[in-house]
Amino acid sequence: xxxxxxxxxxxxxxxxxxxxxxxxxxxxxxxxxxxxxxxxxxxxxxxxxxxxxxxxxxxxxxxxxxxxx
Length: 69
Known about the structure:
1 helix, 69 residues, rod-shaped, mainly alpha
């Protein structure tokens, strides 16, 4: 019986801590990291687009209609 009460108490405290950490993350950490994540995503997209454009424009065996031999 004592074990059951202790287990319930510890689980309740654990849920409280997890709730606090989730709220702290949403209020303090996520707003800061989200802007960095968006920036990195934008940079990646831009670099990928430039790479694709370079490869398409470089193709030495391209016909005038855009297909490869």
